[in-house]
Amino acid sequence: MKKLNAEYDCVVIVDCLSEYERKKFDDSRLLAKFLADKCINHRYCYCGNKKTLFYLLEKLIKVSSLGLSFPIVFISHCNHLSLSIRHRKEDIYWIELRNPLKKINKNMNGNLFVLMACCEGFEGYKIDQRDIDDESFFGIIGPVRRIDLDESIKANEIFFNGLIDGKTVPDAVKDINNHFREELYRSLASQDNKLRF
User: How many CB atoms lie within 10 A of CB 109?
Assistant: First the structure.
């Protein structure tokens, strides 16, 4: 597998939770605050329905074509079939995300990294068929089971702290799992990749 050689301009946070869930759980605001405290540029994007999500992905295709480079953090619900915008009863099946992410990944020279900060987020690996010449992303990480708010917040902090400290993605994921004493997160990425901000 190839090595990731990427320096990112910012982290894109894509929040698909309902207004009620955003107020109750606050994942996005807490992640944004954590990144700001670490002096990592970020962009918060609220997508309350499927149409808005695909509009955002089109915008990300455009800005990535202009040279902006970023990992994407999805904060939503998911399952083995799809990303879910529950309050709208809308499912975005993994295959529907394939083409937009392929375009972003191509614009970023194959360096798109995706963090699924949602229950069963590792199921997002199904977005990609790992076609050798046309991948949807370089790598993805996410939890393998349902997670609660505290687990999500702590996992995000451990992951980004690991990257800031110069660890590879798999080593940062290992830190998450060591903290929780279980294989809570998995990654689909090379051993030799580092993300820099």
Answer: 12
Q: Estimate the share of the chain in helix, then strand, then coil, as percent rounded to the nearest 5.
A: 45, 20, 35
CATH number of the domain to which 99 belongs: 3.40.50
Residue 52 is assigned to a structural domain of this protein: yes
Using the CB atoms, write b or e for 15-26: b if 16+ within 10 Å.
Answer: bbbbeebbeebe
Q: What is the pLDDT of residues 14-27, one digit of tens each?
A: 999 888 887 777 88
Whether residue 36 is contained in a domain is answered as yes
Domain interval for residue 53: 7-147
* 191 assigned to some structural domain: no
For residue 1, the Cα-to-chain-centroid distance in whole angstroms is 20
**Please, are residues 75 and 13 in contact by the beta-carbon 8 Å criterion?**
yes
Q: Is residue 187 part of a domain?
A: no
Question: 36: which residues sit within 8 A by CB, 6+ positions away?
Answer: 42
* pLDDT one-digit tens code per residue, 137-165: 888 899 999 999 899 999 999 999 998 89
Question: What 3-state DSSP class applies to 158?
Answer: helix
- pLDDT of residue 47 exceeding 80, the answer is yes
Q: What is the mean pLDDT of residues 55-77?
A: 96
